[in-house]
User: Fold Nicotinate-nucleotide adenylyltransferase from Cloacibacterium rupense.
Amino acid sequence: MPQIKQYLTPKQKALVVNLDPNIYGTFAEIGAGQETVRHFFRAGGASGTIAKAMSAYDKDYSDAIYGKEDRNRYVTQNRLRKMLHYEVKLIEERLTKPENSNKKFFSFANTVTTINYEKTFKGHGWVGIMFQAKPGEEYSEIVLHVKFNENDATLQQETLGSLGVNLVYGAFYLNDNPRRLIKSLYDEISIDKVEIDMIDFRGPAFEYVDNRLMSLQLIKNGMTDAVIFNSEGDNMLPADLLYKKDVFAVRGSFRPVTLVNVDMFENGLEMFLKDTGGKPEDTVILFEITIANLKASGDIDERDFLDRVDVLAKLGYTVMISIFSEYYRLVEYFTSYKVRYIGVAMGVNNLVMVFDEDYYKNLSGGILEAFGKFFRKDMRVYLYPYKDPQTHELLSSENLIISENLKELFKYFKLNKRIVDIKNYNPDHAEIYSREILNKIANQENGWENQLPEGVAEMIKERGMFGYKEDIEFEEY
Assistant:
């Protein structure tokens, strides 16, 4: 039997919006034509929906309306928000009258650059909407960033138009279910045509929305490879954060963050800054969790996810969630943003996995191809020692057992300082194991508190994180 679509087409969505007598607003589109509003004009009944449609394509004219931008950058989040707020202000000034008291006003905008003639740059853009979920209510906002994957400007414009319609429809009809709203953005759009790597919800319609969870939806739905948010929980555009910077990454499960994680990070970062001669302000520090790690016990537990990132946020760290199970893919991702130097801090166990050939069966060039992508001349592994809980032997790159056919490669990477040991580690942390701590937390055992950074144990107890349940004593009557 043919598969039945469970969603409306962009044309159908545009018509639904047009036929709603209470939805009324403006469209402002820069850089890729008026692709979204075109759908509403063609659907019919647009006169009751569209107050104005414009494309301030010329920079001078655009500047005259929305103001100039620093460094003449027009495809930015700041430009998009200026457009949205300016257009909403005009609506309020011109249409706030008793006869419009039942209207739900909106302003849709995008600022986009499509693929260049040489096809060396595929294009990207910002798309957003400010809208009233109820008449007279304060405005809510949805802003997202897209990266185009198609190799033709016309196709990219068509994709942008469909995406815009999906966003307008979703804002009004799916705002009570942001997860479904996010999925609906790809209605009638193939997942490989465009990437959404940042989304932000604000306003009364999304009062209880956690944008970190919305970032997680982008990963879960295959809409992007990685998302980043800071310690305040704000979603960040990877390109803005990473472009031409030095990057120092620490991968882990962080269930919970232990003194070992902090010791690895602090000492590894100190070595990285000395090696690169970089300044701390030019270095991006990321605590990375893979989606595979989040799924380790089955489906992603969103409470567990928030527990991890809340603790990292308390310590002031920026978090990255990625699909990159293999380290070489992580390094490839960083290099796509033209970063200068890359430092990766890892424990001995993780390095053993890096040298496991079974992980690279999907590559035609096998482990050699992976090593060529991972051990770049501008990348360095900072290796934290591991104390075997059975033998109590301390393992480092000096005594690590590598398979015979990879020993010479291992020596080569050490000789060329692609792998360096963290020497200045704290030996008192050598027997801290996160799994043991997690078991103690869940089983209400003592002795785990002093193995975590200051303030973390109190946070776990106060909020009942990682399965912690405070014992309740009942009085006898």
